[in-house]
Amino acid sequence: MVKYIRKLQPEDEALFRNMNTGIEDDYVANIFSHLTTGNHRLFGLFLGPDLASVGGYSLFANRFAMLGRVRSHQSYKGKNLSTELMNFVLYEAFHNPSIQWVGANTQENNTPARRVLEKLGLRPRIALYNALAEHVYSLATHKENNWQPVLGVSKKIALLDKYYIKPAGIIPYECYYPLPASLDLITVDQLHNWDFYENKAATRFLILKEDQKKHQYLHIVYPWKDFMNQPGFWETVNPAYERLKAETNADTYIWLDLTKEETASLPNSHPFYLRSPWVLYEIERNMWEKGRGELEEFV
């Protein structure tokens, strides 16, 4: 049986829909055309006429790539096809000389996916809970402590630079997509659309931005761990969330990325739904090239 890998195109959607992955209502099928064009790449490993495994990556600022959308045909599981395919995908990503970093975000309890990533040489960077809530009015207990909007792109850039970029931190760039903080990621249009708020003492700030995956989200970005102890924090979030719900007229949630340590600070009656945390794996170009060289020397 002939085995080969090729880049998938929008017209391959029927092949993917006929692939028995065991996943019901798979979002990949629903946006297949989107995931095979623009800044997205999707590859397929074929055994004869059968699409046996799928995986790809998304580009950010033509410098960062996030692996994902790994699917396997139920009939071919246990044959290490996902590892073979994603090794190819990783090579394809770094074949672009502009890409300096490749990551992948997978749930902590997804042992098979984590095993694949570790075989590829990626290492865990941070684990984050996607804390979702349908309301936070129970946390908004202060009356007149709303934070003030930050106006002007230059001030927003200065805050990002000081608290995310210079510390070489991870920024929750989109829902499901934490990335290394870099001004290369963030456009002027995004800075205009992202709402920044600062407390009265100008010692804390937060970002509120709209995001859409399967649902609509108000995505909170906050670089400190004291969100439960800052007067005005939730009083600022709550009205912004209510406005977004009214505008979208659809299923809309608050999204806040939390470390395990930060979840411990939530009150017992908190409104958040916490699933298994997502682990961000990563590898930088220099480490990938070093690993390839060691492997070639060994072979």
From TrEMBL:
GO molecular function annotations of the record: acyltransferase activity, transferring groups other than amino-acyl groups
Species of provenance: Virgibacillus dokdonensis
Classification lineage: Bacteria, Bacillati, Bacillota, Bacilli, Bacillales
Residues of the N-acetyltransferase domain: 3-143
Protein name: N-acetyltransferase domain-containing protein
Database matches in InterPro entries: Acyl_CoA_acyltransferase, GNAT_dom
Pfam families xref list: Acetyltransf_3 (PF13302)
Gene3D superfamilies named in the record: 3.40.630.30
